[in-house]
Amino acid sequence: MISIGGLAGFWVIALLALHGVTGETRINSLGEPDIPFPPARPTTQNIAAICQQGQGRPRYPDSFFPSSSGSHFRRLGKAINRLESWYTLCCRGQAQYSTQVVCCAEQAWKQALSQFCVEEYATMTLAYECCADRGDARWTCFNSELPNPDYDPTPGYTAPSVHQEAGFIFNPHAC
Fold first, then answer.
1. φ and ψ at residue 52, rounded to 5 degrees
2. Which of 1, 71, 90, 98 is positioned for an S-S bond with 104, CB 3.0–4.6 A?
3. Sign (positive/negative) of CA torsion 100, 95, 92, 160?
4. Among candidates 66, 62, 112, 65, which has minimal Cα distance to 85?
5. What is the DSSP string of the chain?
């Protein structure tokens, strides 16, 4: 005999699994949203994937997150969305992935993660550990223990539309 509670629990798990397959909410083993963070620093080795496979990497619309709590995860998702948005500006119309494209993407990476740290410190919670570092130490920290260093796309995933983030200004003289 199957209890109503057991059957309801089965359907909740089934729906969560199905939701994850469609590219929406994915939950890790701790019951938290699964957001691969931090993103890798752009390099000549990963710039082609950054520019060509952006629509295959996850985005995090508001519907991805639980309706209550999870503000830290929302900030992680917002940082990824912002960065992916800015990458499109660096890659747009570029036939070849020149040093200027890599430089632009690296500036976008640093600006997006700097903004993330500002947002982390604006809360009453413990900030992401790399935000405590300054200068090159911060960038080295963010570029360690990477969940997706090659910017590989997620098989079968197509990113939903997210708005273009304002605030990024590429400085070609800093390259």
1. -90, -25
2. 90
3. negative
4. 112
5. ---HHHHHHHHHHHHHHHHHHTTS--B-TTSSB----SPPPP-TTTHHHHHHSGGGS----GGGS-SSS-HHHHHHHHHHHHHHHHHHHHHTT-SS--HHHHHHHHHHHHHHHHHHHHHHHTSSSPPPGGGG--HHHHHHHHTSS-S-TT-PPPTT--PPP-PPPP-----GGG-
User: What's the Cα-to-Cα distance from 99 to each of 54, 107, 124, rounded to whole Å?
Assistant: 19, 12, 40
For residue 154, give both structure tokens: 């997620």
Q: How many residues does the chain have?
A: 175
Type of residue found at 48: A
What distance lies between CA 113 and its chain's CA centroid?
10
User: What does the block give as tokens for 136?
Assistant: 């090159």
Summarised one tens digit per residue, pLDDT across range 162-174 is 788 999 999 999 9
